[in-house]
């Protein structure tokens, strides 16, 4: 029997979850007593629910169950910045990657369409907005990041606009940025509202066990998945537990659990909107520097700030880390919006990016009746959605060129064991954050 030592925690005030239009609606119930399923999925994030939905389409007569440690929408899938990114995230100016970039673009758009179908089918109010995305730089040295991005956008023939400070400040309502690139395909939304809406929509067809942390597990012909007071027995198991995967004993030295933090204001008062954002449409931006700040002006007139990266082998963030992040968020916010000094952050939280060294994901058949998907590398809304779909296809035995591409590109590099992993990761993260300059 494998016992699970580190369990998911809440890590602060979860802004998207607490401000979600579907907040308070109960999704699923706790796992109690002995229950059965044909296929059990652990983890109710974008990857887990996407897997569950496709499995139910393929196997309408089988019982599919999803077990989640927290409420649906409280895990990392509900803590992110709310970008469903259409373009490959780690675009670089490497000729050899163009074909792969086009394939990733195709898969990301598949996820956008799929999530949009869920939104319409389940009538989900998640502030879905086809807003596009800005990539921006304040520091002259970080304009290099924009140049490299532009090279690949041109090679792949993706639509984009390169925008200088004056025009950018009119569009964003801040004069902070020197230059940016706008790409039109990205979606912005409240990620907790969307994943919760999917959970609400699926719970009639799929047994969702929420608030049910798996504390130990017995693998076998029939797996026994134990929570406090409950056991789920299932012939087939899919693990979609992100950075917690190594806790379950079937994967070792492949993941780097990297924390990052978000802060969200309440909706801005009307007089501020009228004065500073009168002609500004909701927007989202990421930085041209990998350690730079993500910012959003949301459809309900809030400001989101995300930055600071920590390596936490414990899989939790501390109050001191969240306080440090809040202080940096404040500085970044005031630097961009000096006229909003009177606006406080209502929520500050942390969440984990499940990174791998070579940015590939783990998409594996571990044995005849165990499957695993993780390592979405900070873009899991789109990636987890398509990986979950194609994991279900693989289990069912369907083949496609998309599945072959995913299998071909899912070979992750080895990371050294502790304490070398933490030492190396912290050194790399500190170096990255120092070079971001004013873009933090
Ligand atoms: C601050 C921040 C900003 C981000 N911004 C973006 C963004 O804008 N766009 C984007 O695409 N991605 C973004 N990401 C990354 C994205 O959130 C992840 O890639 C995504 O959530 C991965 O989805 P998942 O379903 O694989 O994992 P998760 O969402 O982590 O789901 C795994 C689930 O497993 C559950 N679990 C773990 N252990 C157990 C256990 N023992 N028992 C039962 N359940 C368990 C967890 O509670 C969790 O809900 C961001 C992440 C952070 C932290």
> Number of helical segments?
11
Number of structural domains = 2
Percent range for β-strand residues: 15-25%
Provide the list of bound ligands, each named once: flavin-adenine dinucleotide
Rg value: 21 Å
What is the residue-mean pLDDT, rounded to a whole number? 95
Largest pleated sheet: 9 strands, mixed
**Shape assignment:** globular
Which structural category fits the helices and strands?
alpha+beta
Helical content, roughly?
25-40%
CATH topology of the largest domain: FAD/NAD(P)-binding domain
CATH homologous superfamily of the largest domain, by name? FAD/NAD(P)-binding domain
H/E order of the elements?
EHEHEEHEHEHEEHEEEEEHEEEHEEEHHH
Q: What is the CATH C level class of the largest domain, in words? A: Alpha Beta
Concise summary:
With 440 residues, the chain is α+β, with helices and mostly antiparallel strands. It has two domains: 2-79 and 192-255 and 358-417, FAD/NAD(P)-binding domain (3-Layer(bba) Sandwich), CATH 3.50.50; 131-188 and 256-355 and 426-439, D-Amino Acid Oxidase, Chain A, domain 2, CATH 3.30.9. The protein is 32% helix and 24% strand.
What would you note in describing this structure?
- Strands 1, 2, 3, 9, 10, 11, 12, 18 and 19 form a nine-stranded mixed sheet that branches.
- This protein has two domains: 2-79 and 192-255 and 358-417, FAD/NAD(P)-binding domain; 131-188 and 256-355 and 426-439, 2-Layer Sandwich (D-Amino Acid Oxidase, Chain A, domain 2).
- The longest helix has 24 residues, at 98-121.
- Helix content is 32%, strand content 24%.
- The protein has 440 residues and is an alpha+beta fold.
- The model has no long low-confidence stretch (mean pLDDT 95).
- Bound molecules: flavin-adenine dinucleotide.
- Flavin-adenine dinucleotide (FAD) is lined by residues 4, 7-8, 42-48, 67-70, 75-77, 79-83, 85, 213-214, 240-242, 244, 260, 262, 306, 351-353, 376, 378-382, 384.
- The site of flavin-adenine dinucleotide has 42 residues, from helix 2, strand 13, strand 17 and helix 9.
